[in-house]
Structure formats: C-alpha cells, structure tokens
Amino acid sequence: MSKYAFALDDDGDIKYNEDTGTFDMVSADDEVTQYLYLLLGTNLGELTWNEDIGLPQQQLILMGDDEMAVQSMISNYLEEMLGTQFVDLDITHFEVDNENRLTNLQCSVTMNTEDGELTLDTAISNDSERGGA
C-alpha cells in the first residue's frame, strides 16, 4: 500500500472537500479498508480497461447456502489479487434468501502490512437497502 491514497465517499467516488478545494486523502488502515471495499465490490468484467479484475458476484450470489464454497472463492480471489499480503478470511455472518441466494456476507480479512498483520471487517451485500458491496 502507498503512504496516501484518495479517500472515497459512500458511493465509492473520490471524495472532494469543497471547504478546502482539495481531494481528501487516507492512509494506513483506512487505505487498506478502501482497497478491500474496491476489490470485493467490483464485479468481474465491470472495468472495461481490465475485464480480468473483479469478483464474479453473480456466481457468488447463486452459490446459495454453501458457506465453504463462498469462503473458498473469496479467499482464492483475494490471494490472487493481494498475493503475500493476504493471510486469511473468516466469514462472520452469512445470509441467504428464500431462493438460497447469498444476500449478505460479513467477514474478517487478515492481511500483512508494513506495520504487521491487520484484521479488518468488511461486507458484501446484494440487498439494495444496504448499499451493495
């Protein structure tokens, strides 16, 4: 991770501070949190300039109540994207709808950083009221 990165607003857009006329910046844990948010919130093929980046979210949703398969898919994806920075993923909350589609997932992700191991809580949601990934 870099020393500083652009801060993101609640919609995932770069956060502009109208009071100062500058873009807000983040570092350390906040930067790692944003990075995970972007990795988990980007659907495979969504980025036209690199369609190989992204989590196959439709497949994830359709895996239904197979928590181990979901954990394996996300772990493999994060390991591919983060390399040696990725340590572990632990699902802490798993929710499916009445059609056995995954609708809400909360997990803890442990990563190696310059300051040692860091564990962050993050979520993936298919519920529009919860704001997506």
Detailed description of the structure:
The structure is a single chain. This protein has 133 residues and is of the alpha+beta class. It has a single domain, classed as Nuclear Transport Factor 2, Chain: A (Roll). The protein contains three helices and seven strands, in the order E-E-E-E-H-H-H-E-E-E. The chain has helices at residues 28-41, 57-62, 67-82, and strands at residues 5-6, 16-17, 22-23, 25-26, 86-96, 102-113, 116-125. The chain has a three-stranded antiparallel β-sheet. Strands 1-4 form a two-stranded antiparallel sheet. The chain has a two-stranded antiparallel sheet with strand order 2-3. Strand 6 and strand 7 form a beta hairpin. It starts with a strand and ends in an 8-residue tail after the last strand.
